[in-house]
Amino acid sequence: MYKKKNIGELLIDFGKISKDDLEEGLALQKEFNLRLGETLIKLGKVTRDDIEWVLSKQLDIPFVIVENISLDASLIHKFSEELLLKNRILPLYETNDEIAVVTDDPLNREVIESLEASSSKKISLSSGNGEQIEETLKQFFRRAGIPSLIQHIKDLLEKIEGTCFYRLDFLLGEHACEMNVFGYGIVKNIGVLRDTYTKEQIFEAFESLGIAFLFDLYTNETSMMFSIYPLIHRLETLKGPAVLGTFGLFHPDDTAFTDSQMQGLPLMFHSPVPVRGYPFIATKKTFSYSENTIFTTDSAPEDFSNYYVRIAVPRICRNCNGAGCITCNELGYEFPEKLEGMHSSDELKQRTEKDIPWPK
What we know:
This protein has 10 helices and 18 strands. With 360 residues, the protein is an alpha/beta fold. Strands 5, 6, 7, 8, 9, 11 and 13 form a 7-stranded mixed beta sheet that branches. A 7-stranded mixed beta sheet has the order 14-12-15-16-10-17-18, covered by helices on one side.
């Protein structure tokens, strides 16, 4: 079934390119860091349809329209995400003796033999559009990762309930997602998820949990930090100005403004400063002030008096001295004191341990 000829020689045999075209493609293949077929497409020598037509004719295999197929999730998960995406191979179905796949490079014998060895079954090949295969796989793995992400976030929310941590940070890297919690000037690493997630997936996870939130986004050349401020508390009587420092910020029931972006809040709007007559949630360090301003602990003025305060005051865990243990839910801090009422910044400073200055 397989010939010794590569895709370039096959394209010449079927009159799609000349020998000069092939030599040019081979010369630039390493520079482009692409497979030969992709290089020839980039040079404009052939189209993707040309390559797929040649392969299906030469190998006498079916051509599959990828967007019209149903995916077998259990079969796809038998192979590594990296291997399938890198080689543009989409498993279709499985019998007792073989596994059918569609690929844009059926001449990649080394990978096919690897699949046969790992599955102990014959690999039955068909040809398909590589870009569609890759996009189908990416969408599949994005959707497949959502339930796991939702469960991780749900577990995290339960862990920090009743604490001073009001912000969740997701550091999105190329191969992993680091999770931190923040509040009262304390940053605590929660763990690393060995999966790649997008901002949209994190949005979807919180929306699936029915949680509206504020968010900030920070990027550099290698990573993205995505900060979430869940809004889960509805307070019947919230006097302003206020300082909120327990998990889950204030969820306004009517029109309000904030200095962060927001999701799932039809009556909340972005503004860098308070808007007269409306609640204003300040999440970042700011000197803006109005009688309706609701500050997070770390954005509150350093000196204030007679503010409505609702705060979980942190104390380093006496059992593990901050390292994290069962007693403190692996957070390194305990929260034996919850304050709610009218307080001043001086009162809060007196209640806080000297190695946890307030405000940070």
